[in-house]
Structures are given as C-alpha cells and as structure tokens.
Design goal:
Its cofactor is NAD(+). This protein is an alpha/beta fold. It is built from 14 helices and 13 strands. Helix 6 links the parallel strand 1 and strand 2.
C-alpha cells in the first residue's frame, strides 16, 4: 500500500511543471517609509551637524602630511610591524600637551595609558622612572636580572595591578606586547662593569639587539639610555651631541664606553633600516636616593664615606670635573624625550660643573665638616672634564634641570643614612 501511495505522489509531481515566483518590482516607497518612521531622518541630520562642528573646531585632529605620517602610510604594504592608524592617532593626542603645554585634549578624548617595558627597572634610575610612569596611570613591566638592581627599589609597587616584575636577563630574547620600551639595563658604575666586562658588553650589544627586535616586532617606540661616557676623555668642552668623542677602544672602561657607542649604532641602524621609532638619551652623572652604596661613583662614595666617618677618597689631584643632576630631573627628561617627536641623541645632565675637591667640600658641609680628604692615584682612562651642553634639550624638549646639588644632596644623604645605619640589609 505504501509503495502504491509513493508512486501516485511521484506521478503527481512529475505531471506538474515547476514555476518560480516572479521577481519583485523595485519601489522607493519602502526605504523612504523606513527612514521617515520614528524620526530617523532627524537623528541622521543631528549626527551630521555634530560631526561637522567637531572637526571644524578641532583642526588639529586632522592628520597632517608630515614625514612621520608619510612614513606610516607609504610603508604599510611592505612593513609588517608598523603602528596602526589608531595608535598613531592616539600618540598625536597624547603628545599635544608636550608640544603645546597650554593645549588640552578635545572633549571626550583622554590620554590612553600606555603599556611600558622598563629594562633595568629595579635599578637606581629605573625605579624612579617606574614611579613616574605608574603615577601618571601607565601599566609598567620591569625586566631585571638583579645584578645591580634591587627588589626593594620597587617593592612598593608589588601589589599594584598596573605593575609587573619579571626576573630576566636582556641578553636572552623575550616577547611582550608593549607600546614603549625604556632600555636602561646595563651596569653603570666602574666597580660593576670592570668586574664583569664581557657581561657588560654583551648586555650593551646583545641586550640592545633583543630589545630593538622586540620593538620592531610589536611596533613599540624604543628609548636607549646611553651615557656621557661615549665622549670618552673629551677634547671638546662642554660636550655637544655633535662631538664624536675620544675613547680608548681597548681600555678597562671600553666594555661600557664602546658598548654604549655600539648600542647607539644599533639603535640608529634599526631606525634607518627597519623604521623603528627610536630615541637616544646621553645621561650625565646622576645622583639621588636608591643609588648603590659603595658602587665606585663619586657622589655615593663621598656620602657613604662621610656618614661612616671615613676619609673622602679623591683620585688624582682632584681637579677633574663632573656635572651632577638629581634623579627626578633626569626622569623628567627621559619621559619628555620619549613623548616628543625627536630622535636625538640628547644630552641630559646638569651643566653646573664641580671639581672633585669642590664636591668633597660640599659633602663635608652637609654631613661632617670635620671629615678629612685622602688623595689616591687616579684610575685609567678617567675623563678630566665632563660637562654637558644641553642647548638642544632646552630648545627641542623644553627641558632643563631644576634641582641644585645643594638642594638634592641632603635628600640623598637621608636615604643613605637610613640604609647604612637603620636598615643595613637594604644596602
């Protein structure tokens, strides 16, 4: 029975011919009625007026055809690690206050917090930089192998969700997603880099290569903290950024001096060859809280010796000169350089020049007027004069140091006194 029923149905369907539905005729009525319903046309007109008014009143939001923008648009098809339009737009908004201190972000637009990597962030300068970045609302990742850095320098951030601490040596590659990289990792005092010269130059060369490679891969802006030691024992005084230096390439300090010079070379090669956004800062003598005690640098040496009632050790005749900046001035300069549109290099230092004898007398006045001065033979390749010309930083970054040695030194002395006598484990 079922089979007969199926056959009768098949016969019916085979006898009927398939006739598709006719095509509907186009009519303007339906879309017009849709738009006119519920005052949709009014909302469209209001939106157009608001958008037009916003861009007329904010001409700075229009992308200018400068070199930076042309670099992004012309090479997007060939370079896979360019910053996207949104990040470029966001950076322009964030830089408005740097380029024009009186400018404000347009209504509804706020500075987007960055995700920032600080190598050597548990060190003296690095920890103060981390404080600054966290304070302004950024998320910070610190890489440090703790060769000269100390966890105590950043322990006050350990419970902060915006802060992350990773024990890592920059000689080994690492992959992180970040917007900016402050590359500070390297032993900076003679005691440390003379003790491990091969490790020092590997950090300067391989570590910088790894961080530049990371910047290229994720499209981050990269800032290299170089040093005034690239000028060596200079023939030019004060030293300008155009001076190429006078450095002994085979001396006991060359692992640091030539290492930093090579790091600058690598940074500029990545900029020219791989279009990485880079910044270069040449840091002059810096002092302040959290410096390593007994690290061989002159300010920390004098302060520690005076507090311990030991003679102040002056090498040579004491007539060699240095310029000393307080750490907060340096941090401000680094941040302004990173947020600017200028590559550098820039000298970041205090042009106030002191002989070693003058510095020893200032330390005596602050700590112990009865302290004695002891002269010893000078070390090899010790520069006779060191003073930055900061004209370039003044004109382009609108930066100059504000804290004098007389004002900053007592702040450092208080920190050293606490660490030496009250918290010896914090040395």
């Amino acid at each position: 029975m079922k089979q007969n029923s199926y056959r009768r149905l098949e016969g019916i369907f085979q006898d009927e011919e398939y006739a598709p539905k006719g095509a509907k005729r186009w009519s303007w009525g339906r879309p017009v009625r849709y738009i006119m319903r519920e005052q949709r046309i009014l909302f469209i007109l209001v939106g157009m007026v608001l958008a037009t008014t916003f861009f007329v009143l904010q001409p700075s939001l229009l992308l200018s055809q400068d070199n930076d923008t042309m670099g992004y648009t012309e090479n997007l098809s060939t370079i896979g690690h360019r910053r996207p339009f949104t990040r470029n737009f966001r950076d322009r908004m964030n830089h408005m206050e740097v380029l024009n201190p009186g400018a404000k972000l347009p209504l509804g637009l706020r500075r987007s917090p960055h995700r920032i990597l600080v190598t050597g962030g548990a060190g003296f300068v690095g920890s103060h930089l981390v404080d600054k970045l966290i304070e302004r609302g950024d998320s910070v990742i610190v890489l440090d192998n703790f060769f000269t850095g100390r966890k105590s320098n950043v322990k006050h951030h350990l419970g902060n969700p915006q802060f992350e601490l990773i024990r890592h040596d920059v000689v080994e590659p690492i992959l992180l997603e970040v917007d900016q990289i402050y590359h500070l990792a390297c032993p900076a005092s003679p005691v440390h880099y003379k003790h491990t010269p091969v490790k020092t130059i590997k950090t300067n060369v391989m570590g910088t290569l790894n961080m530049l490679g990371l910047a290229k891969r994720v499209g981050a802006r990269f800032l290299l903290t170089s040093t005034s030691e690239v000028y060596g024992d200079p023939f030019e005084h004060p030293q300008r950024e155009t001076y190429w230096g006078h450095v002994n390439p085979i001396g006991v300090r060359s692992c640091y001096d030539e290492g930093k010079r090579t790091a600058e070379t690598l940074t500029m090669d990545y900029h020219r060859g791989a279009n990485v956004e880079v910044r270069i800062a040449r840091i002059f003598n810096t002092y302040g809280p959290r410096m390593c005690i007994d690290d061989g640098r002159v300010v920390s040496n004098f302060v520690a010796q005076a507090l311990r009632r030991q003679p102040l050790t002056v090498y040579g005749d004491g007539k060699q000169t240095r310029s000393f900046q307080y750490v907060s001035d340096l941090v401000e300069g680094l941040v302004q350089l990173m947020e600017s549109e200028h590559i550098g290099p820039f000298n970041l230092g205090n042009p106030s020049e002191f002989t070693m004898l003058e510095l020893a007398n200032v330390v005596k006045e602050v700590i112990d007027p009865q302290a004695k001065i002891e002269f010893k033979e000078n070390t090899a390749d010790d520069p006779h004069k060191r003073k930055p010309d900061i004209t370039k930083a003044k004109n382009l970054l609108h930066w100059e140091p504000k804290i004098t040695l007389e004002k900053g030194l007592p702040l450092m002395v208080e920190d050293f006194r606490q660490r030496i006598f009250e918290d010896p484990m914090g040395l």
